[in-house]
Amino acid sequence: MGLGFVVGVVGVVILSHAAYSTIQYRSLLKIMEEEFSGPPMNVVVELLLGLVLCMWAALTVPGNFLSIKLDTDENRMVSLPGNLDFMIFNHRGKVFSSEMDMKLKI
Amino acid sequence: MVTKTEDTQLNRLENQVDNGGGGAWEYLCLIKKLKVRRPEKVLKYGLSILNDSKKRSSLGSEEWTLYEQVSIAAMDCQCLNVAKDCIKVLQKKFPESKRVARLEAILLEAKGSWTEAEKAYTSLLEDNPIDQLIHKRRIAIAKAQGDISGAIELLNKYLEIFMADHDAWRELADIYVSLQMYKQAVFCYEEVILAQPTVPLYHLAYADVLYTLGGLENLQTAKKYYASTIDLTGGKNTRALFGICLCTSAIAQLSKGRNKDEKESSELHSLAVTALEKDYKNTAPGKLPLLTAALKSLKIS
Fold first, then answer.
1. How buried is B296 (Cβ within 10 angstroms: 0-12 exposed, 13-18 middle, 19+ buried)?
2. Could you tell me which residues the TPR repeats occupy (chain B) (predicted)?
3. Which one, of B181, B4, B273, lies nearest residue A73 by Cα?
4. Per CB distance under 8 Å, which residues of A are interface residues toward B?
């Protein structure tokens, strides 16, 4: 968690540095009066590195993936909940009324 | 819905609590979350928490929901004194609450004073005519008194207003099945499946009812729904596998001579048989000869 978060922050910093370099490069081009043909090599490398780091952090920090397959153990229903809204009380529990003589102490 | 993981977790916690390993509160929370009915355990462990003032105060505001849970469990065990005491505590804490008033009416039900309970529910409905839980309790009263047709009538009236309530549709289906009114039950299960299409157990129940109804068309639909149950459970539902075997053999019996898609059907049959045999070999090798004998008696030609 901690490591992933740090990596994510580093990735964002690298990306913003790439943005900053691009702006600087363009203003440099304006001074030298040349046409913009494409970003310089170091910016491209920074972009790729930032992309990889951010993606890795985004996949690890929020937690594990949950299964979406219906037949895995996490998703496979094995029994239905008791329909408790319709529960009725005159069942055999009345006859087998428990030996437990419990009391609520108030 | 109780998934496999939750089921194993529940059993593990139950074992742990039964053997005095602690974790009673987690167990009670899980029971409430999964909506399973374990009144005796809830009563025993819930009371032991409530009677221990240190444990009780550490729950914070959860304490009151525990009182509610224990009181319902106590009514289910016919320990009406405990239920009454729990409700008294809640009444003192929340004097104006509708929820406590409902609990009191349920206590009347548990005592068997139907008319008084009915009266209490009617007055509660006057304050809030769209309280679903109270409508459901009135249906339950009719059912508890053995007045099944009255329960069906009330349930139908309820479903006219609250059509999206799949629990009520499920209840109605159960009642119809208990009365052997399978055609009506089929309709209810269709509604249930429409509301929750990913629950394999509803597909299974629907297929069971269709198979019981019989007839070539119904059997074919039943086979499809058994197949969808297998699809949704990854083949781990034994009942659905047996259902496939029974359906294919019944269809073969009915459509003798008109062998249209017989090949596909016998293929499905043999697949189901293989899956069943593999399952039995893994979990109960002693029962394997019984299974093979039973499957052999099903004719599929």
1. exposed
2. 166-199
3. B4
4. 70-90, 93-94, 97-98, 100, 102-106
B81-122 pLDDT tens trace: 889 999 999 999 999 899 999 999 999 999 889 999 999 999
Pairwise CA distance, residues B194 & B196, whole Å? 6
> What CA–CA distances, in Å, run from B243 to B173, B188, B209, B219?
20, 20, 11, 10
Token pair, residue B262, equals 């017989």
State in Å, rounded, how far the first CA of chain B is from the last one. Answer: 40
CA–CA distance, A66 with A48 (Å, rounded to integer)? 28
Distance CA B88, CA B82 (A): 10
Global pTM reads: 0.84
ipTM greater than cut 0.90: no
Query: Residue B12 corresponds to which amino acid?
Result: R
Which of B161, B168, B267 has its CA nearest to residue A86? B168
Contact assignment for A77 to B201 by CB distance below 8 Å:
yes
Q: In whole angstroms, how far apart are CA B290 and each of A63, B223, B236?
A: 48, 24, 20
B214's torsion region: left (phi>0), alpha (psi -120 to 50) or beta? left
> In sequence order, which ranges of chain B are alpha helices (DSSP H)?
4-18, 24-34, 39-50, 53-58, 62-76, 80-93, 98-111, 114-127, 132-144, 148-161, 166-178, 182-195, 200-213, 216-233, 238-254, 262-283, 288-296
**Other C-beta atoms lying within 10 Å of the C-beta of residue B109:** 24
Check whether A4 has a pLDDT greater than 60.
yes
Q: Do A70 and B143 touch (CB under 8 A)?
A: no
Inspect the interface and report whether the beta carbons of A70 and B201 lie closer than 8 Å. no
- How many other β-carbons are positioned within 10 Å of the β-carbon of residue A81? 14
Asked if residues B156 and B172 have their Cβ atoms less than 8 Å apart, the reply is yes
Q: For chain A, where are the E strands, in sequence order?
A: 77-79
Instruction: Give bridge partners of residue A79 from the DSSP assignment.
Output: B2
Q: How far is CA A31 from CA A34, A35, A37, B299, in A?
A: 8, 11, 15, 91
